Amino acid sequence: MKHLIPEFEALKTRLPPGLDSILVLPCLRRIQDDRGYIADEDIDGLVEYLGVPRIQIEEVLTFYTMLRRKPLGRWHVQVCRNVSCSMRGAEPLIKHLSNRLGVKPGETTADGRFTLSTVECLGSCGTAPVVMVNERYHELQDAQSLDALLEELK
Amino acid sequence: MPEIFINGQPYEADPDQTVLQVALANGIYVPYFCWHPQLSVAGNCRICMIEEEGRGVDIGCNMPVKAGMRVLTESEEVRSHRKAILQFITLNHPVDCGICDKAGECVLQDYHYEYNGSPSMSGDPKVRSTKFYDLSDRIVLDNERCILCSRCVRFTHEISKSHGLGIEQRADVSLVRPSTDGSFRDDPYSDNVVDICPVGALLSRSFFYKARVWYLTKTPSVCPGCERGCRIDIWHRKPEWQVQSLDTGENTAIARITPHENSEVNGPWICNKGRDLARIFERRRADGAMLKGKPASVAEAATEARRLIKAAARPVALVSSWGSNEELEAFRASLGSMFTALVKPDHLPAAGEVLEDDLLIRPDKNPNTGKARELFGTAPAVIPADADLVLVWGEGCDFSKIPAGARIILLGSWLAPENGHADVFIPVSIQTERSGHYTNCQGVVSGFEACFPRAPGVADAEALFAQLAGAAP
Fold first, then answer.
1. For chain A, what is the largest distance between any 2 Cα atoms, rounded to a whole number of angstroms?
2. Pick the CATH number of B3-89 from 3.90.1150.10, 3.40.50.300, 3.10.20.740, 3.40.640.10
């Protein structure tokens, strides 16, 4: 985390003085982009750098499901299970992916290639069901298209 | 001063006050869970709903006063909101009052009877959560009972400043949890969160399943743990509910200690040491007078002490800094002219004890040093080498510092090896058996009352001093 401090300093200049504790969230996001997850030493480093109580960082980390405490697989398969996607068959798709990858949502395959997650609305209801793999949307999915996608990613 | 109308009656209000504060200050009942007079406004529980005529309902704890505003605290609309809010608050609450220590002093119970009174409308099973979660070795948390008012969290952020607690996760799986750096475990004020918890979520280990509160009564007292002299309530069994069989020791046992709220000394808080006074008061007592270790009556011992005092050429007295104002004054009136009196610290800070902080804790671990020094001077408690009689009142005397050959009169309360070596030993009563006053480090005088009858064979120091001086039989 130490090598990111110049970036954090730049963020600080955009804030009125005395509001450094607001930086908890952007700093955690930046650390996660960098490392892939938030390690214990990142929490220690941030407590020291921002001077915030440790519990404040722990609250933020547990509140936001997007912040991770463990590394992900190479491909992060996120299936939307909100209303539109569920009505258009997201639940069977989750089951299908779960069987195919041999992991439950929230788990990573033993070879470290895939992490399966369920997420709430991805804002693409018109093309439901939607699956997001890393930063890319895959719309109007069904079991066949997902199988093809997994083959491609292997 | 703006004037506002609550339920049609005019009240003077401070422009900085909220409507809830004005109502409470004038004795108007408004329920509240998350609001606390010493903490910031969180506004999360929503139970303090108040109707502003013509504007609808909003939370009273965050409703600023406006001149001429008209509010209603018990209108139909307000009551129906409160009922709905209680349905929501008890949605996942286990309603296990039958086995909850808070029952009898729980505001959730009170409000439920007052405003809801009907079973849950929800058909869904309640969310199960952690039971018996140890927040520290002093406090146990039941997450199912927790209504997430965040009073405990705000206490650690705003009052004790340990930042030891937070709310983790979110929605119906939110959990009060301690910081992993252990700051809550090390917070010397942590037990206050048990008092301010409006429900039975935070419970004290030392009072866990000990007693139903309606069998207990409280006696106002003063914490002798340091020179702050915080006002406390000592809880013990009601006289009408004395135990007749099994452990009758329960009748004279301290059940728990809570702050006695006041604005002069400690507000609504005390430190954890104040909660643990039973460890001080319930040590094994010295139960009989002795002459050089041989049992004697208090009268015989007093006669012998009187003889020693008359015969002494250079008598020195070590005065207790745990004596009450009344006892100290009685000592000066009866014996002050006969002795060179030195004030002795009865207790020194224990290993690991917090010495001092900027909230309540003070470095002198005795309640009445100030008053004792006012009466007997500030000279250090060093016994002169030519002393031929030393009267020791209370604890904290290093007997190896008493000159060889000097006779010893010891007035003590606890069982100690020194008792049998003194020429005269007379047991005296302790704070929970007598009334009196202490003067704290700010000069504020606080009174304490007797919780229990005096132990048999024990003298009251105040009367004993006159007896030693020869004035009384």
1. 55
2. 3.10.20.740
Q: How far is A48 from chain B (nearest CA, A)?
A: 13
Predicted local confidence at residue A20, as pLDDT: 86
Each residue's pLDDT tens digit, B442-456: 999 999 999 999 988
Measure the CA–CA gap between A53 and B111, rounded to whole angstroms.
35
pTM over 0.90: yes
Domain boundaries, chain B: 3-89, 133-281, 289-469
Query: What ipTM goes with this model?
Result: 0.85
- Selected from 3.20.20.70, 3.40.190.10, 3.40.50.1820, 3.40.50.740, the CATH number assigned to the domain covering B289-469 reads 3.40.50.740
Interatomic CA distance for residues B85 and B94, integer angstroms: 16
Question: Is the Cβ pair A55, B179 closer than 8 Å?
Answer: yes
| B198 near A CB under 8 A | no
Among B150, B163, B186, B190, which would you mutate to test the A interface (most chain A Cβ atoms within 10 Å of its Cβ)? B163
Residue A112: count of CB within 10 angstroms of its CB: 12
Task: Identify the sign of the CA torsion B468, B469, B470, B471.
Answer: negative
Structure tokens at B61: 């704890």
Q: What is the pLDDT of residues B77-127, one digit of tens each?
A: 999 999 999 999 999 999 999 999 999 999 999 999 999 888 899 999 999
Q: Are residues A141 and A115 in the same domain?
A: yes
The whole-number pLDDT of residue A17 equals: 86
